[in-house]
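hey so i finally got around to running the thing on that chain from the lab meeting. sorry it took forever, my laptop kept dying and i had to restart like 3 times. anyway pasting the input first so we r on the same page abt which one it is
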Amino acid sequence: MLAIVLVGGFGTRLRPLTNHVPKQMLPICGLPMIEWVALQLAKHGVSEMGLALGYRPDAFLNAYPGGTIAGLPYRVAVEPEVLGTAGAIRFALEELDVDETVVALNGDVLTDLDITALVTFHQRQKAEGTIALQSVNDPSRFGVVTTDKNGRVAEFVEKPPKGTEPSNLINAGTYVLEPEIINRIPAGQQVSVEREIFPHMAREGSLYAVDSSTYWLDTGTPEQYIEANLDVMRGLRDFVPELPTNIVDPSAQIEESFLGEGTEVGANARIKGSVLLSGCKISNNAKIKNSVLAEEVQIGDSAEIDGCVIGRGEVIEPGSEFAWIKRPN
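ok and heres what got predicted. didnt touch it at all, straight out
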């Protein structure tokens, strides 16, 4: 089975981390996000990925020139223009010449979803489309779904006003689709699967859903990106990669943080709730809290940053104090 992975977004909320790479190439505990997706798909019998690309397709092709990602073969469909989620699915189906049932998913969602069970349910119901659902505390930020006792979707409401949500079950961003869905999606224009296609299918009764609550995280913001890294270190994922090596002074305090390969931390530095990518240099007495540092960032003596996102190669001068900024903007 082929999986279409939507990886064409600009990752604007994660800038400046995504100034140079798509967000699906950002590492989670040293392993690029797209590899986490590939490993999960392969575990459930997916034999090939189709990457629906838009922003910086070269980043994927250069990183994986051999045609596989984490051992899973892949092909690409590079959108000539932004087509939205449904438009991207249609373009990929056509470009990759797909005429069979496919899995489609958002490439910035990390999950331990049982894809095998989702496909089995889809086939048993003879559905045109089936959505994985996830229970969350605040469903108003997502597509909210209700179903009947057989799993047929009764309502699909995209981002309803807070307090009006018909349930706490949301669209978890993984779907099983029949190729005929292409007939519902106009060619060559921006179309949203969440706002246009799925609500229409729900009204027709051809859309099903399964509550498959498991580990699930949308990684679209810096806070969620930190959480994704720390969740691995907390043992909340099915898989934990070999963690990188770094140089940390014995007097430094590291609390609930990930340090990338070759990162150096000086005497009496304190790092809490943060993610530092490879090659960072943290000087003596520096304090870093709730922040993300891209590759090769340098933090000067006694500098303090809290809630910041610092881009590749930036230098924070000694004694500086920053809170809740992005640098560069």
